[in-house]
Structure formats: C-alpha cells, structure tokens
Amino acid sequence: MRNWLLECPSCRGELAGGEDELLCLSCGGRYPMVNGIPVLFAPGDDPTVDPGGIRIKNPAEAAVTVAEMNAIDRGFIPGPRAYYLLYLAAAAAALGWRSAFLAPFVMLLALDWIYFRSRRGGALKRFERNPLRLRSAGDWRIVDSAYEREGKTQPTMSDWVGLGGGRGALDAGTAIADDERYHDILRVYRSLGERAAVIADIGANDGRACWEFGIGAGRLLVGVDVSRLLLEEFSARLPEMTAIQADGARLPVRSGTVDFLFCTETLEHMTDPSAAMAEFARVLKPGGLMMIQSPNAHRLRNLNIFHILTLVLSLLNDRILQRKIVHENTWLNACTYHWDFSLQHYKRMLRGTGCRIVETRSSSFFFPLFLLRGRAEPYRRKERILSSIPVVKYFGGDLVLVAEKTDEPVSLRMNPESKD
Ligand SMILES: [Zn+2]
C-alpha cells in the first residue's frame, strides 16, 4: 500500500501496516483492508438507515424510476424539443405580441407547475416502497451489503448509460454524450503533460476513465469511491492502480500530493459538496488541476416553471438554487442525486480554497439530439460550436469547472519520491 500518499481520515496522521489492516500512528485508529482495498472512512461516519430495510430494485423498476425522473425534469411538456418551441414563443411574446401571447403562455406554465407537483408526489410515493434514503457516505456502505446479500453487482457507469437511455436510438446519443465527458477530461489531463504523475479519480466507479479512455494510464491513479463492490471491479481491471474506499468529502490523502484530480457525475450525489470541493483543493499540488463535471441547474430541459422560479430567486441569493432535488432514491436504490449546481455555486465553493478558476462552461447540449443519434463527430462539432457562443455556452446539460491550485501547501509531510 502506498503509505506515503495515504493518511488517517480522522486525525490526518501517518498510516502504517500492510495486507490486512492499516494503523494510524497518531490516534491508533484501525482501518481494515478488504480484498486488498483499504476502507478509510472516518470514525463516526455511521449509516443513518437500517440495513434490513434496503431492497434492491429490479432493472424494470429502475427503468420506470428513470422515466419518472425524466418526467419530473420535463414537466407537463413531454420532450425538450417542445420546450424550445415554448421558449421561442416566449421570445416572440417579448418582442411585441405581448397581449396575444402572454395569457396562454402563463396558463401553460401554470399547468406545467401543477403537473410537475403531481409527478413529484407520485415519484415520492414510489420511494416509500424503498425506505432507504441515502444521506451519508456510511449509507453507501450499507448499499454494498444489500447488493452482496442479494447476490447482485452494483451498476457501473456503462450500465447506467445502457439503461438511462435504453430505448434504441436515444441510447446511442446518450452513450456519445457520456463518452465525450471523458474525452473532455482527457484533454485537460493531457495539458499537464509529464507533470501529471499522481491522478485522483473521485467517484472512480469501475475505473472506466482509465481503462477506456487512458486517463492516468502509466501513471499513479488513485481511485476513490464509497462502494467497495465497484472498487473491486476497478482493481480487477486496473491491478497496478490504487483503490481506496472512502468519502470524497473526507479524503484520506495527504495534502499537496495530487497533480490532477477529476470528479465526474459524482459531486451531485455527495452529502456535503462544499466540503468535498475543499478536500479536492487540499490534496492538490500547487499548479495542479481539478476538473469537475456535474448537472447544470441551468440546463435547458430543466427550465420548467419550478426551475425557472428557483433560477429567478437565485439571482437574489445563490443558496436558493442549491436545493435538494426531489428524487432522493432512484437508480436501483443505490444512486442518490441531491444537487443541481450553477456557476455561482462552483465559485462560492471554491472561495478560500487557494484555487483559481481556469475554465467554466457547460457541455452536453441536448439540442439537437435527434439529428445526432449515434454520430460522434457531428455531436462533438455541435458541442464546440454551442460552447463557444456567449450566454448560450452556460445552458448545456453539465457544468464544467477547471481550477488550478495556486498557493503553497500547508505542509508536505513526506517526499513523494520515497514510495512505501
Ligand atoms: Zn489517526
């Protein structure tokens, strides 16, 4: 185990030990190694739910839930394209047909609001049948045990792409969008060149970023995840890399050791995203980069009346937008999706962490998906064009942040060259 890199998640003391257990030399904390993976949760991070109450949904139930999530996002109007027409109508109204257009427009929005509320009620009723509410990293460990009890595996990112869009041609579009996320990370990773010696993947899942896209290949990649079952797949595919089961908001990684950290499709699931962002900054070396991708609160298909209201209110106070969204418990009972972020949130979370923003924009523009199904190159071209247009570039499906660590680290406790 790479003890020069790891530290006690409780007191940040030095860890010693080997195959079976890691021991903190400062506070005496003991951390087990399970199937070669260190379990480095801070003491006190206990589950908030009863392990006996967890039931794993079958794939059909999960598909229904995903469809309900989409319905919540879209409100009364069943597809994003209809929304674009609505926005056009709104623009036309603003340009002068005010009296003729405003009444039906407002009525549509009111219907949308009612429909949204009713869908939300229905979805929450579903969740009552699955009493689990994941609130802490400790709860995720319990999910692992439920999967083991039922002899199932945790769904990986690849599974998610397959089911999330699982209706023929739409699936191909979703897969391309997912892959483009990794290509985007790869671009930033490559910009560091040889300087990127230590790479951290927060929410590493099964390590797809490395084995499919080469991010961190040939370097030291540290995969952090709350799920040991996913990390076991990570280790099976990437035996030379380091898998750590830990909470991303309490990284058992020494300050100033990481050159490139990325966190994709993960920050929105965390209990305390601000704490996680501070941790990401702490472990970075000066000059190191972090890259975060998470759902964009301002994505176009999100702009039903409910979201429009929160967006307007967020102009007064950006905390209003950082609200828990309604589905606490969705994908196979294991995927919680708590937050929608905006650019303002990213900026606020970075404040005081010693990082400067290098790049902010959005990606995964859904329009015009129906023209791009299964075609990666036109998709990429469309992404480039839309993300270069002022204002428009902030309305994509994902928000992208790249930040650079600028200040000197508080302490570098050991020379990273002297491994083990
Ligand atoms: Zn300790």
Report on the architecture of this protein.
The chain has 420 residues and is α/β, with parallel strands linked by helices. The chain has a domain at 45-53 and 134-405: Rossmann fold (3-Layer(aba) Sandwich), CATH 3.40.50.150. The chain has helices at residues 59-74, 80-94, 98-129, 137-149, 157-164, 169-191, 208-211, 228-237, 273-283, 305-316, 343-350, 369-372, 376-386; strands spanning 15-17, 21-24, 30-34, 37-38, 198-202, 220-225, 242-245, 258-264, 284-295, 355-363, 398-405. It has a seven-stranded mixed β-sheet, with helices on both faces. Strands 1-2-3-4 form a four-stranded antiparallel β-sheet. Helix 5 runs antiparallel to helix 6. It is globular, with a radius of gyration of 22 Å. It starts with 14 loop residues before the first strand and ends in a 15-residue tail after the last strand.
